[in-house]
UniProtKB/TrEMBL annotation:
Annotated ranges, domain Filamentation induced by cAMP protein Fic-like C-terminal: 12-76
One Pfam family in the UniProt entry: Fic-like_C
Entry protein name: Filamentation induced by cAMP protein Fic-like C-terminal domain-containing protein
Organism whose genome encodes this protein: Marinagarivorans cellulosilyticus
Lineage: Bacteria, Pseudomonadati, Pseudomonadota, Gammaproteobacteria, Cellvibrionales
Sequence segments annotated as region (Disordered): 63-84
Length: 84
């Protein structure tokens, strides 16, 4: 499946994540999770963050420190374009 098809077939979870980042960015993982009313950190990472990052829809503000507790996420140009 090419990248365009993957973006069009986004999970609702990823669309919700992108929608929250459109309101305000950058945000900490904890802030995003709270805004989406999610408590399971592992599930959030697997179902929301990883797919959005792998499709280049969101990015880390400090990619050289992926495990930093102050890591924030923001939309990429592709993420903004998806919003319309």
């Amino acid at each position: 499946m090419n990248r365009l098809r993957k973006v069009k077939a986004l999970r609702p979870q990823v669309r919700a994540l992108i929608g929250e980042l459109a309101k305000q960015e950058p945000l900490l993982r904890e802030e995003l999770q709270s805004r989406l009313n999610l408590s399971d950190r592992k599930s959030f990472r697997e179902r929301y963050l990883k797919p959005a990052v792998s499709l280049d829809l969101i990015e880390m503000t400090a990619p050289e420190k992926p495990r930093s507790r102050s890591q924030r996420y923001r939309l990429t140009p592709a993420g903004r374009k998806l919003l319309g």
